[in-house]
Amino acid sequence: MPAWIEDRFEKNIITTTVDFVFNWARKSALWPMTFGLACCAIEMMATGASRFDMDRFGAGIFRPSPRQSDLIIVAGTVTLKMAPIVRRVYDQMPDPKWVISMGACSNVGGPFDTYAVLQGVDHVIPVDVYVPGCPPRPEALLYGLMRLQDKIDRMTIAKKPTEIRLDDVKNDPRIARAAREEVERIGMKI
Fold first, then answer.
1. Average pLDDT over residues 92-109
2. Measured between alpha carbons, how far is residue 20 from residues 30, 36, 154, 184 in Å?
3. 135 preceded by cis ω (within 30°)?
4. Angle at CA of residue 151, ends 147 and 154, nearest 5°
5. 20 to 30 A from 129, CA-CA: which of 36, 40, 80, 154?
6. How far is CA 116 from CA 41, 75, 108, 147, 156, in A?
7. What pLDDT does residue 159 have?
8. Which burial class, exposed, middle or buried, applies to 1 when counting CB atoms under 10 A from its CB (0-12, 13-18, 19+)?
9. Whole-angstrom Cα distance, residue 154 to residue 164?
10. Sign of the CA dihedral 11, 12, 13, 14?
11. Can you give the three-state secondary structure of 107-138, one letter per residue?
């Protein structure tokens, strides 16, 4: 029996926390916004297609309007001319809202260290998960989506969603265990 269910009562009664129910509903029904800026958008579309199937993770319904979505996947190069529009779209989204920055261009400007390209979308909106790559494979976006769902699992209704960040990833036992296993696998000494 899962740890979040306590079997102290008679059958057909389950006890759990309000946080668990809210977090389960939020992470199981993410509605990303259709917002592709460059080549990473092709990989984002492939992730939503039948081969990779984002619907398995509850995030397959791409919405055309920011007022209907709670996740924005910034996929591609953000120019300085586009930055205010990205901010306006983010402001139009209802709370709680999350941001995934997909690709080297949206993360840090990519190879475009020029006057016209924003050197990271985090200069205009707060980013929850960064997906590296140029362009990242659909599997990388799915991994970023799962990390966002882990972040949503740690939320509480007592705090604003924007107060919870992935800064405590180093304290996550699953990630620490995976890092230890990888170090042992390649035979590296730390």
1. 87
2. 16, 32, 9, 35
3. yes
4. 145
5. 80
6. 20, 17, 13, 31, 39
7. 67
8. exposed
9. 8
10. positive
11. HHCCCCCCCCECCCHHHCCCCCEEECCCCCCH
pTM: 0.73
Instruction: For residue range 45-69, list pLDDT tens digits in order.
Output: 888 777 777 777 777 788 888 888 8
Helices 18-28 and 138-153 pack at an angle, to 10 degrees, of: 160
Task: Compute the radius of gyration of the chain from its Cα atoms.
Answer: 18
State how far the alpha carbon of 89 is from the alpha carbons of 71, 81, 103, 106, in Å: 11, 14, 19, 16
CB 76 within 8 A of CB 38: yes
Residue 89 makes CB contacts below 8 A (sequence gap 6+) with 33, 35, 66, 72
pLDDT (0 to 100) of residue 160: 63
